[in-house]
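Inverse folding, one chain.
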C-alpha cells in the first residue's frame, strides 16, 4: 500500500508573534487567561488569522462493527452498534444529547455497520462492508477496503469544509472497537499489549486478560508491517480507518480537529504516522478513563484539556471541549484591548514564566 502524498501546511512564525502581541494587549494581566490563550493561539495559527472564527461546527460520529467480537473481547451484544446509530439519529445517546446542548451539527457515518439503514438526512452512507473480519483468523480488512474507508473519511471531511465548516469533532460507535484500537496502539507506540488494553465497555479482569491474549496471538499470526496503513488493514476497523482519513484531510484544509477518547485517538495515531503535522491541528479534549488513553496521549506529547473520568466515546468528550474553544477564539477576536477599554496598559508587567502551560 502506498503512503498518501498530501501535504499539511505549517504555521507562520510572524503570525505567532503578532498573536502574542494582540493577546498581551487585551485588558487583563499578561497570560491571565491561561490555557484559553494557548487555545486562541493554536486556532489563530491553524486559520492563519489574527481574527479567527469558528464556523459550522460539525461532530462526526463514525460507526462500524468488528469481527473480532467473536473472540469475546467485548462484554456487550454487537446489535448495540446499529441500535445506537438509530438512537443518535433521533437525538439520543450521549452524543445526540451533548452535540445538541453545545450546538454542534451531528452527523453519523456508517463506515461498516452490519445493518441496512434507511436513508436519513444526518446519516452518511460510507459503508465499506458489513463489519470487519475476525483479525485473529484473517486481516480485519483487505488493503483495498482499508484505503476505501480512509479515503471515505477524507471525502466526507472535504465536503463539510466545502460547505463552510472549519472545526470538526470526531467520535465513534462500534461494539468491540477498543480491541483494534489497543492493537494499533501497541504496534504504533511500541508498548506491550497489556499496557494498551483496558475494560472497554465493562470487561472484568478475566475478560481483559482474554482480550490481551487475543491481540497478542493476532500480532503473532500476522506480524507487524513497516507500513502503518497495512497494520491498520490487519488490526484496525472501518471507523478507525475513516477517522484517520478524516483527521488527515481536516489538517490539509486547516480545520480545527477535536479529538475525543481512546478509539478516536487510535485513528489519530495512524494519521500522525503519515504526517506528524496533523497534531498541530488537534485539540485534545480529554483524557479518558480507559487506561491506555493516557499513554497514547503521552506518546504524542498531547496535553488534554479535561480529565472528567469519561469512558464512553461517541464524541462526547470532544463536544465538551467545543465551548472552551469558542471562548478562546472570542478572547482573541473580540475581547477589548487596553486602548479600547480605556484601561491603563499593564502589558509591560510580565508574570514570571513557569512553563507549565502548553497548547497541546
Ligand atoms: C450502550 C453502549 C453505548 C456506547 N457508546 C459508546 N460505547 C463505547 O463502547 C464500545 C467499545 O467498547 P468495547 O470494545 O468494550 O465493546 C464502543 O462502541 C464505544 O463507542 C458504548 C457501549 C455501549 C455498551
Ligand atoms: O475512551 C473512550 O472513548 C472509550 C473508552 C471505553 C469504551 N468506549 C470508549
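Residues assigned per position:
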Amino acid at each position: 500500500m502506498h503512503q498518501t502524498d498530501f501535504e499539511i501546511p505549517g504555521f507562520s512564525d510572524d503570525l505567532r508573534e503578532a498573536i502574542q502581541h494582540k493577546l498581551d494587549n487585551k485588558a487583563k494581566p499578561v497570560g491571565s487567561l491561561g490555557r484559553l490563550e494557548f487555545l486562541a493561539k493554536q486556532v489563530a495559527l491553524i486559520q492563519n488569522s489574527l481574527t479567527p472564527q469558528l464556523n459550522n461546527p460539525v461532530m462526526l460520529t463514525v460507526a462500524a462493527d468488528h469481527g473480532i467480537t467473536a473472540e469475546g473481547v467485548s462484554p456487550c451484544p454487537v446489535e448495540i452498534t446499529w441500535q445506537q446509530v438509530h438512537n443518535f439519529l433521533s437525538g439520543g445517546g450521549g452524543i445526540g444529547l451533548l452535540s445538541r446542548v453545545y450546538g454542534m451539527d451531528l452527523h453519523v457515518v456508517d463506515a461498516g455497520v452490519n445493518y441496512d439503514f434507511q436513508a436519513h438526512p444526518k446519516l452518511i452512507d460510507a459503508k465499506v462492508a458489513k463489519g470487519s473480519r475476525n483479525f485473529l483468523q484473517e486481516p480485519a480488512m483487505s488493503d483495498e477496503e482499508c484505503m476505501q474507508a480512509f479515503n471515505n473519511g477524507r471525502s466526507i471531511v472535504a465536503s463539510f469544509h466545502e460547505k463552510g465548516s472549519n472545526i470538526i469533532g470526531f467520535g465513534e460507535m462500534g461494539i468491540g472497537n477498543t480491541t483494534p484500537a489497543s492493537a494499533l496502539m501497541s504496534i504504533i507506540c511500541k508498548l506491550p499489549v497489556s499496557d494498551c488494553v483496558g475494560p472497554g465497555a465493562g470487561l472484568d479482569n478475566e475478560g481483559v486478560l482474554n482480550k490481551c491474549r487475543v491481540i497478542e496471538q493476532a500480532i503473532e499470526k500476522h506480524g507487524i508491517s513497516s507500513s502503518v496503513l497495512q497494520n491498520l488493514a490487519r488490526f484496525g476497523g472501518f471507523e478507525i480507518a475513516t477517522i484517520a482519513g478524516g483527521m488527515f484531510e481536516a489538517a490539509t484544509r486547516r480545520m480545527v480537529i477535536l479529538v475525543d477518547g481512546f478509539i478516536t485517538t487510535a485513528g489519530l495515531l495512524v494519521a500522525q504516522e503519515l504526517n506528524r503535522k496533523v497534531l498541530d491541528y488537534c485539540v485534545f479534549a480529554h483524557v479518558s478513563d480507559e487506561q491506555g488513553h493516557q499513554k497514547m496521549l503521552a506518546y504524542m506529547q498531547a496535553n488534554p484539556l479535561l480529565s472528567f473520568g469519561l469512558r464512553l466515546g461517541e464524541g462526547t468528550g470532544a463536544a465538551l471541549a467545543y465551548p472552551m474553544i469558542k471562548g478562546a477564539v472570542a478572547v482573541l477576536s473580540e475581547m477589548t484591548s487596553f486602548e479600547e477599554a480605556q484601561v491603563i496598559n499593564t502589558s509591560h508587567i510580565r508574570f514570571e514564566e513557569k512553563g507549565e502551560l502548553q497548547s497541546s
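The CA atoms of residues 241 and 330 lie 34 Å apart. The chain has one domain: 58-327.
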